[in-house]
Amino acid sequence: MAGVRTAAQYKQQLRALLPLGPAWDPELVPEIDLVLGSVAQEFARVEARAAAALNEMDLGGVSELVPDWEAVMNLPDSCLGQNPSFEDRRLAVQQRLVAVGGQTINYFISLAVGQGYPNASVTEFRAPRWGRSRFGAAYFGTWGAQFMWTLHTGGRHRAGRRFGVSYWGERFGTNPGSALECVIRRAAPAHTVVFIDYN
Predict the structure, then answer these.
(1) What is the DSSP string of 112-129?
(2) What's the pTM value of the predicted model, to 2 decimals?
(3) Rounded to the nearest 10 degrees, how much is the dihedral formed by the CA atoms of 64, 65, 66, 69?
């Protein structure tokens, strides 16, 4: 926290504000220095807490107010499970604040990227229709496939779960895909069928 004054700086400032005279001389009355030191520590503590509160307003630095942000934003997200990690909760708060929604391919890819799959892609299957189909075109299916699409995660989850940064119940070296599936299926249009390919 740049710009936050220390207790020593506050003590120096308070000493400079003392009136002139022998009653306020720190050498003649050492108790004055003790009082100034105590007051300076409290001023420094209050300023540090104020600076921390200002940092909490920016979601990039939020930590103490995550429960308050969650109460406002209807979080924690049920897709994260019963006991999401603190980092997952903070990320959910940040994503919920800037989310605008949508039904485009880019929107669903952004959801996957937000869940830690940076190489995600989507394949849409279209039913063959007169005037829209042509020989040799890929990704055509039967009439039953007209509302199906596949989200390809693009490989392993970013960073993976590992010793020291995972919580109890997670397998090492892999990441649960249930959160991704829950988020994608919740946002998918109701008439579509979504498949998720973990490669």
Answers:
(1) HHHTT-TT-EEEE-B---
(2) 0.58
(3) 180
